[in-house]
Design brief:
By secondary structure, this protein is of the alpha/beta class. It has helices at about 30-40, 55-65, 85-90, 120-130, 165-170, 180-190, 235-250, 300-310, 335; strands at about 10-15, 45-50, 75, 90-95, 100-105, 135, 155, 160-165, 195-200, 215-220, 225-230, 260-265, 270-275, 275, 285-290, 290-295, 315-320, 340. The chain has a four-stranded mixed beta sheet. A three-stranded mixed beta sheet has the order 4-5-6, covered by helices on one side. The chain has a three-stranded mixed beta sheet with strand order 7-8-9, sandwiched between helices.
Amino acid sequence: MPAEWAPHRATWICWPHHEPDWPGKFGPIPWVYAEIVRALAAHEPVEILCHDERVRADAQAMIAAHGARAANVRLHVVPSDRVWLRDSAPMGVLDDAGGVHLLDWAFTGWAKYPNWQQDAEAARTVAALAGLPRLEPGRPDGRTRIVLEGGGIDVNGAGLLLTTEEWLLSDVQVRNPGFDRQAYEALFRTWLGVRRTIWLGDGCVGDDTHGHVDDIARFVDAETIVLAVEPDPADDNHARSLDNLRRLESAAREPGVGPLRVVTLPFPRPVVMNGERLPASYANFYLANGVVLVPTFNDPNDRIALDTLARVLPGRTVVGIHAVDLVWGLGTLHCLTQQEPLGAS
C-alpha cells in the first residue's frame, strides 16, 4: 500500500445527505464540502458519490458557487448511508508492476450502526467507476470476509503501519471476532505489504469508531510521524497521548524500525456540543497532490498545527478547513476522503 503522499489519480468523497449525522447543524455542512472540493480540485481530480439526483444537483450548484475547477470534478449518482469513505471505500494497493488494485474489505458500520448496507457496496461501485480490478480479502477458510476500515491504519509506503489496540484488540465494537495481534499482523503483511506493525494504545476522546489511528498519529514521510499530544494533565487525552508517545519512542529504538522521528501536534481546546466531547484533532488532515488539507477549530492552536505541518511537509500547500461544524458528525477531513493511487503508466 503506497503512502498517502504518493501520487494520486484522484480523491473520492461522498456528498453529505444524511441529516442525522449532523443533528441540528446540517445546513452548513454541504458548504464545507464545497470548499473541500475547491481546494482539492486545484490539485487533482475529485470523484463525488451523490445519493440521488437531487443530491447531485445540489452538489453541482454548490461546487460551482465556490468556483471549483470544474474539469477536475465528476459526480456519480450512487446510493449511500453515510459519507465516511475513508472506511467504506476501497484501499488502493500496487502490484509488482505498479498496477493499482482496490481492496474491498467488508464494512459493517463500525460494528455499531444498523444502517450500513449501502455503504458496504461502495468499494464495488468505486472499482467499477474507476475501471480497476477489485480484490476481497478474506479469512483462510475462504468463507468470511475481513473488516478493515481505512481510518484505523496509516502506512509509510516502506513497510511500516500504525494502528491501535483500542480499535482492533479490545472487546468493544469488535470487527473480526477471534482475530488477535498476530492474525492482524499477518493480514497486514499479506494484503498491504507491511513488514512491521507499530501498535499504539488508545485513540482520542470522543472517537465514535473506538480508536481509529487517523485522529492521533500519521506518517508524513517514510521516517516521520506526527502525534497529537495533550500536555494538560486534567484533559482526558493527556494520559493516552503520553502513552502513545512512549510507544513510538520505544518502537523507534527497535531493530528494523528506525530511523523514526516523532513530531508532536497539539490538540485544539475540547470541542463540546450538547454536552458531548467531539473527536477534534489536527491529525485528521488529508494529503493530496501538492496540498495538505488541515481541520481547524477557531482555536489558538490552529496556527501551531498549521505551522508544524508546513514544516514537516515542505513544498506542499497547507490549507486550513473550518471543521467546528464538520466534527459534529464525529469525523473530519481524513475520515471523509479516500485516495486512489496513481499506477504505473
